Amino acid sequence: MTGTLSPELERIVAAAAAAAPAYAATAPADRARAIVAVADALEGARSALVEIGARETGLTEARLNGEVTRTAVQLRLFADTLVAGAHLDVRIDPADPDFALGVRPDLRRLLIPLGPVINFSASNFPFAFSVLGGDSAAALAAGCPLIVKAHSGHPELSDATARVAIDALAAAGMPEGVFYLIHGREAGVAVLQDPRIKAGSFTGSIGVGRLLADIAAARPAPIPFFGELGSVNPVFVTAAAVAEHGEAIAAGYVASVSGSAGQLCTKPGFVFVPEGGALEAGIAAAAAGTPEHRLLDPRISRSYEERRSTILGTPGVRAVVEGGIRFDEQGHGWATPTIVTVSLADFRAGHAGLIHEAFGPLSILVEVPEGTDLAALVPEFFEGNLSGTLHLGAAEAAGTAEHVDELRALVAALSQQVGRVLFDGWSTGVAVTPAQQHGGPWPATSNDSSTSVGTAAITRFLRPVAYQNAPAAFLPEALRDDNPLGVPQTISPAGESQGWGGRWR
């Protein structure tokens, strides 16, 4: 299969494969210093990069500056994580002649880097999920050489960001071949199919993500593929929440829907509210005067226009905020937010046309009659999502409301369908922190046990290896008894197996 690559792609993949052993063997502190150097260089080039990004994507400089900061913070977080070593999941079982099942050998297990990774970058986060975004940071922290397939929506920014990374890694002494950028879907697919590539990641549409995931799975030697593909992020607002802080809910909702022209994977697509329209005036007031915002590219603009027309044309749908979209001479769409409402009965009737993601500043209020089993609505209408949100009244949040068991059932139902359950907030604005979970069941992601944000993201690009009766001289440092790296080690002492389960009798 290597013969199908162009000469340039062959050079890149061969260099990444050659760099893999050396990069995996770099001392954690040296790798951490290199990753921090990349973060520092990214921030040092901030002004020039943001100017290119604003021109190519139409996103505001304020938004892009925030993304640069977020990207640098994530790189630094991962640098600290790889030195701390918890992501290696080190487990040590010393030899035990009195083991419950017979003599136990000395067994020591840890996670090691997979090898070269290809990351298909996103259009809507030109820093945070692009060339140096979460997937790239995780692969580099794991010790995997990285090939990034640039997004066609911001090619100039991709080249400039890649140059920052390549120069910083080289200056930090990392092996040649650790980082490359390529362009074009065909090139990306060809690299994904190459047997020297050991994992893939992607942020984008369900259709393209499924295609790439199927390619990864159909290889003679299948590889893991981590795609973030689509989400509508349902929200549930109780009557008590509306009564106690409806104005704040309305304002927060509009801000979440309209921010970055609604081009966020965590945008609230559906909000289930008590029937009666109590939030509508506040929503209309909050949306009044919202300036139009350019969508990322003409293709996304046309798709949004079609999706918006389908939703507005569905029987029973009524506009709370009409919004709109216009096209300029370059074919770019400029949108203002559209928010509509529909009864639960009409939502059920028009479900097939309404339920799919509208990638842009549009969201749907679903009016729910009193006494509706909210927990039952989750599996009825939704597949996997990145997030689910509840807005509660004070007594409900304190667990003292009479119907608290119904709300607990709703939380349990959401937990089966999403990766992150929020209370009294909005799903846009994903905190970059160790415990974050940014993934969910299909089609939110192609692998529902993974995350692309938070320190657990690193383990996607590692695999386990156990060493049995290995002399100390041949053990990885993390598995040695003297533990020179100081990483956490889970040790099962000899003799303890005789007492397993005893305390439960």
UniProtKB/TrEMBL annotation:
Q: What is this protein called?
A: Aldehyde dehydrogenase (NADP(+))
Q: What is the protein's species of origin?
A: Leucobacter allii
InterPro entries per the UniProt record, alphabetical? Ald_DH/histidinol_DH, Ald_DH_N, Aldehyde_DH_dom, Aldehyde_DH_Superfamily, ALDH_KGSADH
Under the heading CDD domains, the entry gives: ALDH_KGSADH
Please list the residue ranges annotated as the Aldehyde dehydrogenase domain.
8-309
| Keyword entries, A-Z | Oxidoreductase
Pfam families named in the record: Aldedh
Recorded hits in PANTHER family, A to Z, give: ALDEHYDE DEHYDROGENASE-RELATED, SUCCINATE-SEMIALDEHYDE DEHYDROGENASE, MITOCHONDRIAL
